[in-house]
Amino acid sequence: MSPASEQPRLFREAMASFPSGVTLVTTTDPGGRWWGFTATSFCSVSLDPPLVLVCLARTAECHPVFAAARRWIVHMLHPDHAELAIRFATRGADKFTDAGFAADPRGLPVLPRACATLACTTHASYPGGDHTILLGQVEHTRLGEAQPAIYFRRNFH
Q1: CATH numbers and ranges of domains, the chain
Q2: Which pLDDT score, from 0 to 100, does residue 1 have?
Q3: Nearest alpha-carbon partner for 150 in 58, 6, 14, 17
Q4: Which stretches of the chain score pLDDT less than 50?
Q5: DSSP 8-class letter at 138
Q6: Which of 83, 88, 92, 150 is the least crowded, having the fewest Cβ atoms under 10 Å away?
Q7: Helices marked H in 69-131 — which ranges?
Q8: pTM of this prediction exceeds 0.85
């Protein structure tokens, strides 16, 4: 068995070895400014009502905005969006400039070329260690035609 000092590193490596989809989650603040982050911790929770969850680090710049947001959009990305996923995961990056987003009817940033988009209203949020678990009720789903990106061992596939 590995020493306790190795456990955090081993846990990170184990989680990187679990393939996942790649999503961008976007919203606006009360002033209309766009915010977003990359999330691989995303899953469906319920069909009735349609619920999804996404996890956001409490240290993220956008955390206060998402903690207060009533609406947000999950974008399932395809491999051509790898650079965009990295940009949205980078603290202080100019996330939206020349990224292809447009405002939806409510003013939220939406990426039309995503594999799928899920427009959500906040159903609940829960503390989850160093993250917040955001639970969203899906109000509208749009499907694209592209195949999704898979993130595995810190690379896009």
Answers
A1: 4-156 (2.30.110.10)
A2: 66
A3: 17
A4: none
A5: E
A6: 92
A7: 82-88
A8: yes
